[in-house]
Amino acid sequence: MVEGKAVDLNGDGHTDRLLVIEDGTRPDGPRKLLVLLGGADGFRLSAEADSVLFCRECGGTWGDPLSSVQAGQGWIRINHDGGSGWRWGSSHTFSLRAGRWELTAQEQYRRSPERLETSYSVPPSECQNTDLTRFVCGISLPETLLVASKRAYFYQAPSPASRGSSYVIAGQQITVRKTYRTFVEASYLGEGGRSTHGFLRLADLKPVDF
Questions:
Q1: Max Cα-Cα span within the chain
Q2: Which single residue of 56, 89, 120, 147 could bond 81 by disulfide (Cβ 3.0 to 4.6 Å)?
Q3: Could you read off the pLDDT of 54-81 as tens digits, one per residue?
């Protein structure tokens, strides 16, 4: 067991358990989060999640990326930190709704070697699956796409309210790092090697061979 917590998660007066376990046979073995609800007859498994925790060696030179697992009545929060010269971190909050643990908040940050930090929120509506037991939020599948619209603006987060002033134009190629439901995290390499990074609307893009 990597970590364990005792807390009344559902407010029924019984102590519940949160357990983080891992495959100890290899350092990059997968980790699982187990949610055990207590009762008069002992504990029962409420949720088992195998896609919300990074492995022990997934934090880069910073080491084990699991910073903490926090919990209170009706909520669970998982915090990760990692990187080397560039640092990154994430915080995922799941709330108990009608007997299911659903993502209700997600925060991300990056910090450059010069300690310049950018942070943003990912709306749960941009995730492919918000259920703790089947969690998928952003698919990391690098690919090259073409700009289809006359102008495609960069956003500071995968949210329509965060549009910036930088944009790319029709026919230019962008490199996708992660794909959400209606946005992609992407970068554009311009003249002189200047790179622009942010989020673009999927509706403004098309495959290279389209």
A1: 68
A2: 89
A3: 998 888 887 899 999 999 999 999 999 9
CB pairs under 8 A, 24+ apart, for 8-15?
A: 8/73, 9/35, 9/37, 9/46, 9/71, 9/72, 9/73, 9/74, 9/76, 9/96, 10/37, 10/73, 10/74, 10/96, 11/73, 11/74, 12/39, 14/38, 14/39, 14/40
Closest to 27 in 3D by CA, of 67, 57, 5, 53? 57
Question: CA angle, 191 as apex, 152 and 200 as ends, to 5°?
Answer: 20
In CATH terms, the superfamily for domain 143-207 is SH3 Domains (2.30.30.40)
Instruction: Tell me if 65 sits within 8 A of 52, measured CB to CB.
Output: no
Report domain extents, the chain.
3-134, 143-207
Q: Please state the pTM of the whole predicted model.
A: 0.90
95-152: pLDDT as tens digits: 999 999 999 999 999 888 777 778 999 999 999 999 999 999 999 988 999 999 999 9
